[in-house]
Fold this sequence. Notes:
The protein is α+β, with helices and mostly antiparallel strands. The protein contains 12 helices and 7 strands. It is rod-shaped.
Amino acid sequence: MNNIESFFINAVLILFSMLIYEYFIVYRQNLKKEKINILLSVSLYISFYLAIYYKKYTALEYQFMSIIIPIVIAYLHHNVKDALFMSLIVFIYSIVSLDYKWYIMLPFFIIFYHLYKIYSRTNKSKLFFLITNVIIVSLTVILNSLHDFSYEKLAIRLCSVLIYTITIIIIALGIESAQNIINLHTNLKNFEKEKDLRLSIFKITHEIKNPLAVINGYLSMFDVYDVDKSKRYLGIMTNELNRSLNLLNDFLEFTKIKVNICETDFNLLMDEIKDILIPLFIAKRVQYDFNIEDNLIINIDGIRMKQVVLNIIKNSIEACTSDTGYVMTDVFKDSNSLIILVKDNGEGMTKDTMDKITTPFHTTKEYGTGLGVSLSNEIINAHKGSLNYTSELKKGTTCKIVIPLKN
Length: 407
């Protein structure tokens, strides 16, 4: 094995652990800074060990350049403590094992350190640091071998400088590429956060307009001289206001929907839903039928499920475009599950629309946001339940909600 082959092998071995480090950091960006620093140090010392271990296969100038590479990487990563510690080892090793002159090596490491300080304090580019490093390493090798000068050995040393330069360039490109990938991932994460924020804003806008519309409708019918009707209206408006505040709390928490399971009188809940929706049925001239099993006391998040049922029935009302429109709602228990069926004889949906019905922003309505069913699906999923649609164009749609019940 000749010297050039040996040096290439050394370079590959040294770079191997650093490439593993870069790969790990790129794809494990949730690591804390302390763990990243530990991983870097481990990679550097593995490279350092390999460089010293394989020195027996190479000439002196290759040995020195090989063991300098981990120090260069440490400085590039601003890992000064490891760089200085390895520099001390190399200083001793180069004098004892390589027979280099201490009065040449000491200025080399001092200059090397100050070169790093200039690079870090003045925001000099990596290219500046690497080029100057190649120059001082080359001069150090040449100065330490002046006593054994020949053109043949000079050619070998020049080849070693070239290979060292190529290795350093590979390191620089690897670090730069890894940093670009990390920056790209960071930008993508920021984009996802912004997307989630926009989605939350759309959700809260879509959902909060429903209770506000109900409150506005009842306010327009409010009659201070009709005490009984006013009391009933106030109760409905208070419930809708509380629902709005609950939605705002979800937005402020900026997290997935949480459910608060408690004993709920679902019959009473459906009565509240009917009171809210009957004015809409009348305004749209849609016939309705509510069939609810008696004594339906269940453990569920009543506020959330009210939000879901209102959304589903409202969509069915809007799907009915003729004077013969009809919406039927069935609510009952089957084994250990709550079943809610909402059927209409409206326009129906295509298969493509049904496949995308829970996809945020997908809507066929002129002024829809495509978030009502998406949010309802989230609430049902939080209950460990399921939401399914069956539909036929011009014949109608059936929505089936299944919620497993806890005893």
